[in-house]
Amino acid sequence: MKKYQILPMGLLLASTAVFAAGQHAGMDHSEMDHSKMVSSTIDHSNMQHHGQMASAVGMPAPVEQATKTFEVSLTDDMKMHFSPALNIKQGEIVRFVISNNGKMPHEFSVGSLDEQDKHRAMMRSMPDMVHSDGSTITLQAGENAELGWHFMGTSFVEFSCNIPGHAEAGMKMNTILR
Ligand SMILES: [Cu+2]
Q1: What is the Cα 133 distance to its own chain's centre?
Q2: Parallel, antiparallel, or unpaired for β 136-139 and 106-111?
Q3: Residue 78 Cα, ligand 1 centroid: separation in angstroms?
Q4: How confident is the model over 34-88, as pLDDT tens digits?
Q5: What is the spatial distance between Cα 70 and Cα 82, in angstroms, rounded to a whole number?
Q6: How far is the CA of 125 from the centre of ligand 1 (A)?
Q7: How far is the CA of 43 from the centre of ligand 1 (A)?
Q8: 47 C-alpha to center of ligand 1: Å?
């Protein structure tokens, strides 16, 4: 009669846990002080924040370090309303307080014109994809969220909801950093 070897389950579980812990340790940037960053000293090309590449228009930042706040209302008539009106300077850290006041899911995403075009193309090809990284938040009906962003880099910024059809119907807003 053949003897079956019992798999060392304990070992397997232990190595999985170590892997998960290691991943998180690499993603903790909460100690980072964005207010002391100077854009000219930062190389964006190989910079990583919160596990993702920095955008051409800046990077995620803790909302506590923001010096300016905008309220953003997302509605089912495909509007993205900012209050007060957008007025952002190069180098500013901004807090966006976003509310989905509609009955369908919406997205709030910050990026360059080119990044948002690519983001929309990706979401058209994968309609069920839910984005939630440092530059994008998906909100279900009635949900609220905050996003902190340190603006630096390309001056042409686009905020948009990249759920297929929404930005095309007007759910986006462009601004130029001063
Ligand atoms: Cu939308």
Answers
A1: 4
A2: antiparallel
A3: 6
A4: 666 654 444 444 444 444 457 999 999 999 999 999 999 999 999 999 999 999 9
A5: 6
A6: 17
A7: 33
A8: 29
Cβ pair 109, 135 in contact under 8 A: yes
Q: Tokens representing 168? A: 């095309």
Residue 107 CA to ligand 1 center (angstroms) comes to 5
Q: Domain residue spans in the chain?
A: 54-176
So what's the architecture of 54-176 in CATH? Sandwich (2.60)
Helices vs. strands in the chain: H and E counts, helices first: 2, 11
Rounded distance between C-alpha atoms, residue 122 and residue 128, angstroms: 11
109, 164 Cβ separation under 8 angstroms: no
pTM: 0.73
